[in-house]
Amino acid sequence: MLAESWLYAASFPFWAERARHSKTGFVEAVRLDGSSLPAAGSRVRVQARQTYSFALAASLGWKSKQARDLVDDGVDALVHNCRRADGLYGKVLDHDGGLLDDAAQLYDTAFALLAFATTEKQFPGAASAPLASVIAAIEAHLRRPAHEEGFAETLPKPDSRNQNP
After folding, report:
1. What one-character DSSP code corresponds to residue 78?
2. 33: exposed, middle or buried (C-beta count within 10 Å: 0-12, 13-18, 19+)?
3. Looking at residue 11, what DSSP letter applies?
């Protein structure tokens, strides 16, 4: 009950009030006083995590309309500013539009997938096209040959595998 109370009374409202960037997406970090840290960009996974978190908040019963507005902002930033031409997701969003670092990594792209899937589950139709697109991009560009199994962590596909991805 304590965690639930903290989520509804403190965490969700705090990030809802302070998470949005004035131009696009969500801020990377805030100071201890709650003000945004100025930054040229933000990690793409931050955009995806915030989108996921607010879709989850709505599914838990927290302010559906406000959560939906935040989710829509996140989906918009992911689709229009974080996605590469090949459908994969870059590493760092430029808040003026586009990517500061467009390196494709499975880790960042997987967070976009999570955000879209959770959004689609909570708000049917809100992320169906980007969800299908990111799945197709992962399959087309990151799947390793059948004899190797799994997915490549980055592009170009490395010869070795990392432990975390």
Report:
1. I
2. exposed
3. I
Tell me how far apart the alpha carbons of residues 150 and 120 are, in angstroms, rounded to a whole number: 25
95-149 tens-digit pLDDT: 998 999 999 999 999 999 999 999 999 999 999 999 999 999 999 999 989 998 8
38 neighbors 22 (Cβ within 8 angstroms): no
Let me know: does 165 contact 153? Beta carbons within 8 Å.
yes
Residue 16 gets the label, from left (phi > 0), alpha (psi -120 to 50) or beta, of: alpha
Q: What is the pLDDT of residues 56-81, one digit of tens each?
A: 999 999 999 999 999 999 999 999 99
Q: Report the candidate in 127, 86, 131, 90 with the shortest Cα–Cα distance to residue 108.
A: 90
62, 82, 111, 114 from 42: Cα distances, Å: 26, 10, 14, 18
